Amino acid sequence: MITESEALDALLPLGFTQEQIKFAVSQTGSNAQSIEEIANFIVLTLPDPSAAQQPSQPVLSNYSEQHQNAPHKLVLIVNSALKMSQGSTKSTVRVWLDQGEPIIVVQSGNDSLLDLEKRCLANGLPVYKIHDAGRTEVASGSLTVLAVGPAPNSEMDVVTRSLSLLK
């Protein structure tokens, strides 16, 4: 079981709010066996910080049976404009990497993350913005990663296929 203190220590530096983390820990209770499970709960059920007081239905609950049975993936779009070091980039995206589902890490290139977010939302894709805590090389509040999905591969590809893999 992950304690609230452990979750706060691990997830605050990744840009999650204290309210989101505490709410996720309270909802997952003794079921959460890893930090990744708590992060996934936040990403899938709390689309923005204000939702911590009024939880929404999980994103996947609105999918048809066809969507639920289709192959899914999660795409993490790293903000290329920030020119983060490999170490900072890895620590920003590491929380999702051990979950077992396909996770693709790409770079934003010439597209801004906010423009990509608009395109994702217009196509009905779940998104989550990750802001840096500012404890290392990136200014506090910087938008470092846009998490898109999980969603069916075919729907994700409409927006993310043209993005280059992170090098």
UniProtKB/TrEMBL annotation:
<dbReference type="GO" id="GO:0004045">
    <property type="term" value="F:peptidyl-tRNA hydrolase activity"/>
</dbReference>
<protein>
    <recommendedName>
        <fullName>peptidyl-tRNA hydrolase</fullName>
        <ecNumber>3.1.1.29</ecNumber>
    </recommendedName>
</protein>
<dbReference type="InterPro" id="IPR015940">
    <property type="entry name" value="UBA"/>
</dbReference>
<dbReference type="InterPro" id="IPR002833">
    <property type="entry name" value="PTH2"/>
</dbReference>
<comment type="similarity">
    <text>Belongs to the PTH2 family.</text>
</comment>
<feature type="domain" description="UBA">
    <location>
        <begin position="1"/>
        <end position="45"/>
    </location>
</feature>
<dbReference type="InterPro" id="IPR023476">
    <property type="entry name" value="Pep_tRNA_hydro_II_dom_sf"/>
</dbReference>
<dbReference type="GO" id="GO:0005829">
    <property type="term" value="C:cytosol"/>
</dbReference>
<keyword id="KW-0378">Hydrolase</keyword>
<dbReference type="Pfam" id="PF01981">
    <property type="entry name" value="PTH2"/>
</dbReference>
